[in-house]
Amino acid sequence: MRSHSHPVMTGNHSFKLDNATLYLFLSVNTSITISVIYMIVTVINLVGNGLSMWLLIFRTYPKTPSIIFMINLTLTDMAVGAALPFQITYQLQGYDWTLGSMMCSVMTLVFYTNMYCSILTMMAIGIVRYLGIILPMRYRDKVGTGKKKIIAIISCMLMWGLVLSVLHPLMKTDLTFYIPELKITTCFDILKREMLPSKAAWATFLFSMVFFLFLLPFCVTTFCYVRVILKLAKDSKTAQKKRAIHLISVVLLVFTFCFAPNNILLFAHAVLKLFYGQSLYMAYKLSLCLSCLNSCLDPFIYYFACKEFRQKLRKLMNLSSQSSADSMKTKHKECSYSAHYNCDSLEREDSKVSYPQRRSTK
Predict the structure, then answer these.
(1) Does domain 19-353 have CATH number 1.20.1070.10?
(2) What is the pLDDT of residues 21-66, one digit of tens each?
(3) What proportions of the chain, in percent to the nearest 5, are helix, strand and coil?
């Protein structure tokens, strides 16, 4: 049974729809624009990540920690691709959710777990690259290949656990809300203030999301990649530096263009709503489109992060797997310099598995 009197994040003790939110619900052009963006993202997401998943699982060996993290990232991206059609239908129906409160909670969790698991996974990939390139001997000697895979799998589970624990309030609350004046039932477009017991609880919830799931991982990722770039700039060949720069550019693009606006606006909008009765809802809603674009950009991360993924993709597309960046001559020089440059951590043990013909030279 719907409740028409739940207080929401308006800063008041009774429900009152602010002008920014009302404009969003009544703006047909905005709904169509956002829906079209979601349609494009859905197609690119499912095609790109479907191909990436197939290559990562069935065509890329060995399964290094970075490959495991990429598989985890692809799973979250494909989940968003599967959920977006429901969001598109919801918006084209005038923000009237007809699938019930349980489905609304599931769709909301899919959106936010994707964003934050993507952020944490990118951080993990950055840490693996940092350990493999900045601390290669210590990383290779102290942790065996089998242990690295186990650590990667456990890390993925811990990421999901952390994200779901922070987002727990969204799991135990009915996120639908009926608006009598518009005769629509919204889904996560109006948050009930009673979702959390106090303003302090709201502040803790928002701070945890923004700091632990965005700001801290962003700082760690930036630190790792800056150190990698500085190391490669001094020691590596031109092809390695180019790929590293391309990878870092894509990662930072995803953080600054896809994740930062949404997290900053979410925090600012919630603080303004809770304490000042102001709203940034239109800007926040548009920033959700940007956050979904990360699922289209992630395959580019795989392309620049893993040489074997790059070679398999070229072969699949009937392109020569030998290029100026991946020729046998360059590969030989890279391996003779340091085997861990291949596919992130690529310690010498993994290099032997990838190229069995070298076993006789051991």
Answers:
(1) yes
(2) 788 888 888 889 889 999 999 999 999 899 889 888 988 888 888 8
(3) 75, 5, 20
